[in-house]
Structures are given as structure tokens and as C-alpha cells.
């Protein structure tokens, strides 16, 4: 089929202007990075023509034999890069990774203990306008006003008082390291699950510049386009015991069809992040 137009000069011109803006501007936006050419190339391939639901070997659409291999490679590369027992590479964004984890192991009304947005947390960690606070009871911890650091004793006290089903570590604006061992200790004391949201530090973790939370957390979530050199989209890592619950929570729980070209680009991202050069 030949479409009536093969160009959209108005949109193409604006994209060119944005390209020039990026080349001329030093951008310090923490939730952005510059995707390598191979990521942009793979993310715009003919894989965008395909609709898939389900997982490798268990699809709801025919003709998935090649994409099954691509998604499997992405999964195995993610597991190897972070030393995880299970990976789901289908989430469309970082917020969806967290919602999927909640949906997998929490019931409506369960209590979550997470960092307040005003202290550096994230919208999906229970902001009043986010769906997370509509479905779950969210208690927030903050930082010490004098040091700007997480007060782990306050976290422990709140966990003891509220007995949260889940504790969330990680933030969108906290320029310090998180003590994952300490949070694991608090979680064990309060019989809580531990979620590490490392969207902003995933690349540093992959590059072994900061501590990996995988050995401490039940779940690790991140997006691929901040300190990782990848496309839009997110990933969930978890212990093997939660694998089937996480997969069911992503699809059909939170999302429908997956974004095939971006999953392929995630696979390329993990390959780049595993190199000595990265």
C-alpha cells in the first residue's frame, strides 16, 4: 500500500530544530541522557509494525519467533548486567514498573513506606495526585533538615509504628547513596517487602560505581534513559519467587501490548552498559 504522503515537513522541521537545540545546549536535566545512534536506530525499526502480548513462547499473536529471541536476549542481558534472578523488560516507563510491583504483591489499602516527594522521592511513591496514593495507604519519610540525609532511625520508627507491607528506597532527587543493607534490616524487622527504585542511578550501578541493591531488595525497578544509555521504557528485576507474579502484573495487569522496537533497543542498551568503555 502506498500512502498519500511520505513526508511530514512540518514535524520533520521541528525535529531538526530540536536536534540543533540539543547540540547547542548543555542540559542538566537529571531524567535525560543522550541515546547512542544504535539505540535510536533500533528503536525506529520495522518492529514497530508488530503487535505482541504475552511473553516469549506464550504469545497471543502469530509470527513472534524472531521477536521472542529478541526479548529473551534483553531479559538475559538485564539479568547478567545486574546479577538478578528474573527480569521483566516490558514496562513502558519507570512509573509503570513501580505500579506493576505494587499490583503484583499488594492489596488495595496495604501500607507503603516511601520517601516524600518534597524530600526527593517520586510521584509514583505515593504523591497525593498519583494513583499509588489512591489505591494504597502511603506513609512518607523524609530527610534530616540539617544534613539533608535520610534518617534511617526515623524510617525504622515509622516501620515499627505502621508495619508497612512494602518499604521503598530510592528517589528522583537525592544526591547521596542509599544504605540498602540498612533498609533491608528495617524491612526484615517490620516483615516488609523492599523495593529499590534506582531509575536515576541504574547506570552507575551497571558501571559498578555505586552499590548494587539487587542482593538486598526483593524488587528493583528502573528506567533506561537516565544514567543508562537506552530508550524510553523501564525494567523490573526481582527474586525468582516473585517472577510469575511480576510478569502477570505487567501483562495483563497494568499493560496491554508491548513496545517491540523499544524492547529491542533495551537489549542493545544492556550490551552497551556491560562494556568496559561504559
Write the layout of secondary structure elements.
Elements: H1 9-24, H2 37-42, E1 54-55, E2 58-59, H3 65-82, E3 86-88, H4 94-105, E4 111-115, H5 131-135, E5 137-141, H6 152-162, E6 166-169, H7 180-189, E7 193-197, H8 202-206, E8 219-223, E9 234-238, H9 243-254, H10 260-273
Parallel strand pairs: 4-5, 4-6, 6-7, 7-8
Antiparallel strand pairs: 1-2, 3-9, 8-9
Helix pairs in contact: 3-10, 4-9, 6-7
Structure characterization notes:
- Helix content is 39%, strand content 13%.
- Helix 3 (65-82) packs parallel to helix 10, helix 4 crosses helix 9 and helix 6 (152-162) runs parallel beside helix 7.
- The chain has 278 residues and is α/β, with parallel strands linked by helices.
- It has helices spanning 9-24, 37-42, 65-82, 94-105, 131-135, 152-162, 180-189, 202-206, 243-254, 260-273; strands spanning 54-55, 58-59, 86-88, 111-115, 137-141, 166-169, 193-197, 219-223, 234-238.
- It is globular.
- The strands form two sheets. The chain has a seven-stranded mixed β-sheet, with helices on both faces. A two-stranded antiparallel sheet has the order 1-2.
Amino acid at each position: 500500500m502506498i500512502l498519500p504522503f511520505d513526508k511530514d515537513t512540518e514535524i520533520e522541521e521541528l525535529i531538526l530544530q530540536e536536534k540543533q537545540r540539543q547540540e547547542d545546549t548543555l542540559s542538566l536535566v537529571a531524567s535525560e541522557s543522550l541515546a547512542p545512534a544504535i539505540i535510536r536506530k533500533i528503536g525506529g525499526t520495522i518492529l514497530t509494525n508488530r503487535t505482541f502480548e504475552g511473553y516469549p513462547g506464550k504469545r497471543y499473536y502469530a509470527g513472534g519467533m524472531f521477536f521472542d529471541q529478541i526479548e529473551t536476549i534483553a531479559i538475559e542481558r538485564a539479568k547478567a548486567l545486574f546479577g538478578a534472578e528474573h527480569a521483566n523488560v516490558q514496562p513502558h516507563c519507570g512509573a509503570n514498573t513501580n505500579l506493576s510491583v505494587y499490583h503484583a504483591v499488594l492489596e488495595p489499602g496495604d501500607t507503603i513506606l516511601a520517601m516524600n516527594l518534597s524530600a526527593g522521592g517520586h510521584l509514583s511513591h505515593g504523591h497525593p495526585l498519583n494513583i499509588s496514593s489512591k489505591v494504597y495507604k502511603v506513609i512518607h519519610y523524609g530527610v534530616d533538615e540539617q544534613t539533608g540525609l535520610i534518617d534511617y532511625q526515623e524510617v525504622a520508627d515509622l516501620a515499627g509504628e505502621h508495619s508497612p507491607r512494602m518499604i521503598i528506597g530510592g528517589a528522583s532527587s537525592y544526591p547521596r547513596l542509599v544504605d540498602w543493607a540498612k533498609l533491608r534490616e528495617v524491612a526484615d524487622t517490620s516483615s516488609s517487602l523492599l523495593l529499590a527504585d534506582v531509575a536515576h542511578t541504574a547506570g552507575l550501578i551497571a558501571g559498578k560505581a555505586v552499590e548494587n541493591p539487587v542482593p538486598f531488595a526483593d524488587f528493583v525497578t528502573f528506567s533506561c534513559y537516565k544514567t543508562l544509555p537506552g530508550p524510553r521504557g523501564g525494567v523490573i528485576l526481582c527474586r525468582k519467587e516473585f517472577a510469575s507474579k511480576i510478569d502477570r502484573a505487567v501483562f495483563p495487569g497494568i499493560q496491554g501490548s508491548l513496545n517491540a522496537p523499544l524492547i529491542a533497543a533495551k537489549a542493545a542498551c544492556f550490551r552497551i552498559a556491560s562494556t568496559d568503555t561504559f
